[in-house]
Design goal:
155 residues, alpha+beta, three-stranded antiparallel β-sheet
Amino acid sequence: MTERARAIQRTTRQSPYKMRLVIDQIRGKNVSDALALLRFSKKHAAKQIEKTLSSAVANAEYKARLANEAIDLDLLVVSHAVINEGRPIKRFMPAAQGRATPIRKRTSHVDIIVSERAAKPKPVAKKAAAKKTAARKTTAKTAAKKTAKKTEGEK
């Protein structure tokens, strides 16, 4: 994986537990597949994560343009996607007998890194593969001959 691009969204007004349910679905997927999954998800967290992922893709394009390199968006993969806990917003709610009970409205930090998928390794040539299998067969034959000689010598 050559280039990496990052996008962070801080203090998203949703609990990290609910956000992690969505981010687990896209981790390691192709960017176009992940965006499609997020676009049609019913979860509120999907909209926030989709914005962050789109920003990461735009950052990758910008980095490639600055380096004067070509980038194929179909090869981009969500290589790192994490939801961290942000600062809770503290509020108070009136309770019985003049008391106040604290409420913690949780927030999240979305951190997404996209990178280009590594090129697939070239297949091994057929001749080299045939030589390897032939070598394995000869070693098996010689091992069988040695065990046969040992058993004859013991008799």
